[in-house]
């Protein structure tokens, strides 16, 4: 499958520590954490039929307020999930629908990001949960979906990121890259819970893949922390990659 050319505009890049949490914290909580916590960026779930949390705080006003406070924002979209995955997710990939569904979900991701004030040149990360990467038919359907999703983002001037697990979904992307597949994500955010706040030390794939500022590493989960008098339960990320372009 041929890829659509990546955006002409270079990505906005953040390097440092980031966090993600299911429901976006209030703007007041973000203000309390800014400068008190070790984090400079926060990931938020902007959409997707399989998104598991409501987002009462996540509005265009919230995005602009937290960005003006000094935060970088990392948009995450929970798209259709693999056919071989055991879950109750309502939107699933099949061999028949992979290309069309990837394209429509990619368009929806762009629309949701734009509606929140995240403009062209932003990176949006596709959340692909764990599955058996050794299942060749399943991996083929997922790859077709991801390629179509990526192409839809590129067609609208956005960078395509991918969130997955080091031993399953992200591994499948690495294997596709090693096999010479085209149309793959621009940036890779991999989950590997080794406690290492770094995107190069312990990188589980060939060193040349997604090298430079194209990586995120989720290295710990479900950590309760308190800064500025506000307690949140968050996942920890080391970041050296693209983020949203705000305003």
TrEMBL record:
Domain of life where this protein originates: Bacteria
Annotated signal sequence range: none
InterPro entries in the record: GH, Rv2525c-like_Glyco_Hydro-like
A matching Pfam family: Rv2525c_GlyHyd-like
Protein's UniProt name: DUF1906 domain-containing protein
Positions of the Rv2525c-like glycoside hydrolase-like domain: 31-239
